[in-house]
Amino acid sequence: MKDLLVLRDLECVKAIAHPRRIDILNAFDKEPLSAKQLSEMLDEPHAKINYHIKTLYNVGILELVEEKIKSGIVEKYYYPTANNVVMSRKIIDYTLDPTSKDGEVSISDFENTVENFYNAVEQDALKLENVLEYRNIKLSDSEIVELQQVVKDKVEAILANRKENNEEKKNDLIMVAVPVDLEKETAE
Fold it and tell me: How many domains does one find in the chain?
């Protein structure tokens, strides 16, 4: 089972958007389930549950993991293909002004980095030592600028000292200081 499944097209999003299909996904625990078991758990007719299972299966959100013959009937057991399901924001990539001015934060560049992050997780290529995260720390604007300059200087020094034919994997490096609790700050 994958850790993350990124829904990259509208058909997948439409498939998971139905409330009963979310209930089906939430019904799974550690074991695969059949349509019959799910219909009993969710108190829903077998035919309806089977329809929803097939929809989720057809877009790759559920996978068929086992078939058992019980009293001459083939019972199919399904399980989610991933522990977590997220929607790619590229599905709804909409802007009235596709050009950005120098110095502005480029949302599309950030989204590309997020997409690369999802791809790396899906391919099990993201190493834990490549992730550095600090949450809810208090830094002033001048401290953030100072930190950005230190990181920028270090990256430029590494690149300047690098041999030209470096065959290392390419990586995106993004540093963003995101204000939290903005509503709380403006209320005070």
Answer: 1
Provide the greatest CA pair distance for the chain: 73
Examine residue 187 and state whether it is found in any structural domain, yes or no: no
CA-to-CA distance for 38 and 26, rounded, in angstroms?
A: 11
Residue 34's domain is classified under what CATH number?
1.10.10.10
User: What mean pLDDT do residues 106-134 have?
Assistant: 75
Tokens 């990256």, residue located: 155
Element (H, E) at 181: none
Six token digits for residue 52: 């929803």
> Given the DSSP bridges, would you call strands 73-80 and 62-70 parallel, antiparallel or unpaired?
antiparallel
Query: Which residues face 62 on adjacent strands?
Result: 80
Host domain of residue 73: 2-86
Q: Could you read off the pLDDT of 134-171 as tens digits, one per residue?
A: 878 888 889 988 999 999 899 888 888 876 666 677 77
- What is the tens place of the pLDDT at every residue in 1-28? 788 888 888 888 889 889 999 999 999 9
Listed in order, strand segments (DSSP E) in the chain are 2-7, 33-34, 62-70, 73-80, 82-87
Q: Is 96 a member of any domain?
A: no
- Exposed/middle/buried for residue 166 (C-beta within 10 Å: 0-12, 13-18, 19+): exposed
Contact by Cβ (8 Å): 136, 181: no
